[in-house]
Structures are given as C-alpha cells and as structure tokens.
Amino acid sequence: MTRKEQVRNTAVHLMKLHGFSGLTMRLLAKELGIEAASIYNHIKSKDEILETVCFDLAREFELAVLEVNDIYFNATEKLQMLVTAHVRILCADLDASMVFIHEWRYLPEESRLRFIEKRRKYEREIRKIIQLGIDEGDFDEIDTKYAVITLLSAMNAIVEWYNPNGPLQPNEVADRLYNFIGKALMKSLEFRV
C-alpha cells in the first residue's frame, strides 16, 4: 500500500468515525504518526478525499446498474443481479460506503450537484427494472419511485450493521435481501394469469 493510499484509507476511516466535520488534518496526522504539514504531500484537502470516495463509489454503482439493464433478462433476474451488485459494492469497503451514504452532503456545492445527478441517474435505472417487472406482469402495480426509495434504504442500511467477520457473507446478505424485497414486489400467485 502506498503512503497516499494509507493516508486516504485512514482519512476515510476517521471520517466514518467522526464525520466530515470531525476530520481534521491534525487528527489525521496524529493517527498516521506524522506531522500535519506532511499530509499535504499526499492529499490536497479532506474535500478531495470526500469527492474521491463519493464519485468512485457512484461510478461503481452506475456501471453495475447499466450492466444489469444491458442484459436481456427478465425483471426478477435483473433485480436480483442489482441487489447482489449493490451489496457487493457496499461491503467491499464499509468505511468508504458509510462515508458515501452519510457524508456526501458536505461535498462542495458544484460537486454535490453533480453527485445528486449521479444518484438520480442510478435511481432512474432501478426504476426501469421495477417498471419492467410491472410491464411483464411479475410485480404489482406500484409507485416505482417509492419502491426504489424503499429498496435503496434497505440496501444502504447494510453499512450500519454488516460485520465482515460475522456469519453472513455479502452474497448471503444479498440473497436474503432480494428474497424479502422480491416477495414484497411480486404479484400474489393467486392473481397471476
């Protein structure tokens, strides 16, 4: 691991613990055992770290949903693939995921607006999956926006409780989450044609 990666990872961990506002260069330097002034040899600012985390993860989520929507599968298969990809991305770096979910509000205004647009694009792509399920007759007629908000809330909450040393691996969490969400969206069998 390079020194820059070490600085970034430590900063992200501290941001997760103390929030964006609670991260200072002095705290970061102390945690790394170096002088505060030497931090700037590796990063420009804590804003730079926040932007990198938020936009790197946003890019991962965007690529995942675009890949899912590019595949010719039915909506239930696409939804399962999406849930699996989303959970995998979140669990790959829980510190960064926590910062991504909770600290994006502290992005500088221009960056925050670009980030919000990326989130909206991701949500629109998920709505396509839900609408496809409705059109295919597999999902109940529901408000797709509300369904997406509920789905994202359930998936993103994983960062609050998931323990990589616990009994469940990310794919098992994704399967359980999909089974729960899938059942909520699916039309009752008695109403199927």
Task: Using brief descriptors, characterize the structure shown.
193 residues; mainly alpha; 10 helices; disordered C terminus
Q: Could you explain the architecture of this structure?
A:
With 193 residues, the chain is mostly helical. Helix content is 75%, strand content 0%. The radius of gyration is 19 Å and the shape is elongated. The N and C termini lie far apart (57 Å). 25% of the residues are buried. The C terminus is likely disordered.
Task: Put the structure in a nutshell.
With 193 residues, the chain is an all-alpha fold.
Number-wise, the strands total 0
User: How would you characterize the largest beta sheet?
Assistant: none
Helical segment count? 10
Shape descriptor: elongated
Structural class: mainly alpha
Radius of gyration: 19 Å
Helix-strand pattern, N to C? HHHHHHHHHH
Mean pLDDT across residues: 92
Helix and strand arrangement:
Elements lengths: L2 H20 L2 H8 L3 H4 L6 H25 L4 H18 L1 H9 L6 H27 L8 H13 L1 H4 L8 H16 L8
Helix pairs in contact: 1-2, 1-4, 1-6, 4-5, 4-6, 4-7, 5-6, 5-7, 5-10, 7-8, 8-10
